[in-house]
Each structure stands twice: as C-alpha cells, then as structure tokens.
Amino acid sequence: VQLQASGGGLVQAGGSLRLSCAASGRTFTRYGMGWFRQAPGKERDFVASTDWSGGITYYSDTVKGRFTISRDNAKNTVYLEMNSLKPEDTAVYYCAASVGGAYSDRARYAYWGLGTQVTVSS
Predict the structure, then answer these.
(1) What are phi and psi of 114, to 5 degrees?
(2) pLDDT tens per residue, the chain (122 residues)?
(3) DSSP label of 113
(4) In this structure, is the dihedral angle defined by the CA atoms of residues 7, 84, 76 and 59, taken in order, positive or negative?
(5) Residue 87 and residue 14: Cα distance in Å, rounded?
(6) Cβ 21 vs Cβ 78: under 8 Å
(7) DSSP state for residue 117 in the 8-state scheme
(8) Residue 78: which H helix or E strand, with range?
(9) What single-letter DSSP state applies at residue 56?
(10) Which of 5, 25, 80, 115 lies in the 20 to 30 Å Cα band around 44?
C-alpha cells in the first residue's frame, strides 16, 4: 500500500489543522492506520492509531483530548484532526499502515508515507 500525507502547515498556538493520509494500492480495510511524529533530533513517536473499522482508537497521552483520528474507508483516507495546538506539537507527521489492528508500536507498521510538516508558533 502507498501512503501520501498532506495538510500540514504553519499555525498559531491554539489553532487547528487536519491532516489527511490517502492510501492506494491495496484494500484499505486490511490495514490498521497510525499517525506518528518526529521533531528534530528526537525519536519518531506514536500519536494515534485506529483499527480497520475506525471503531477502535488509541492516543498518546500528550495528544489525548486534543487530537482525533478517523478514517473514511470509502475514500481510502485516514485523518488526524488536531485542535488546541501547542508549539511542542511541531514535528513532521507520518502516517503508517499495519496489517492487523491499531498499535502504538511503530515496529508493527510495515508501510509508511512521506511526512508532512506541522509548525506551531507561539
């Protein structure tokens, strides 16, 4: 499966962005989907994930209550709605696909898209 993330940009603290990740190449509903992010000089960290149906979701503690992951299987797309953004949310955001369920461990994800930059100014 090929993944293409989009929707990043520059936003002020307290603002919102919605990231999209379009999938192609294989049956989208085979895959659990995740979002990860990587700030300069840091590890790539888990942000959110969802199972094939969108009915099961997980979030990191740092984004819980502010970010929402969802998917539209008819459009082969997964979304990350980000609200109340903080400067520490600044990172390159990556979407990823796993064969199976929703995971927080990046090692469970076999397919990765190119990232999209999110910059939050104070």
Answers:
(1) -70, 150
(2) 999 999 999 999 999 999 999 999 779 999 999 999 999 999 999 999 999 999 999 999 999 999 999 999 999 999 999 999 999 999 999 999 999 789 999 999 999 999 999 999 99
(3) P
(4) positive
(5) 9
(6) yes
(7) E
(8) strand 77-82
(9) -
(10) 25
User: For residue 110, how many other CB atoms are within 10 A of its CB?
Assistant: 12
SS3 content of the chain, % helix, strand, coil (to 5): 5, 55, 40
120, 90 Cβ separation under 8 angstroms = yes
Return phi, psi of residue 87, to 5°.
Answer: -55, -35
Cα 26 from Cα 14, distance rounded (Å):
37
The residue type found at 16 is S
- Residue pointed to by tokens 């980000």: 82
Report how far residue 76's alpha carbon sits from residue 15's, in angstroms, rounded to the nearest whole number: 27
Residue 50 makes CB contacts below 8 A (sequence gap 6+) with 32, 33, 34, 56, 57, 58, 69, 70, 71, 78, 102
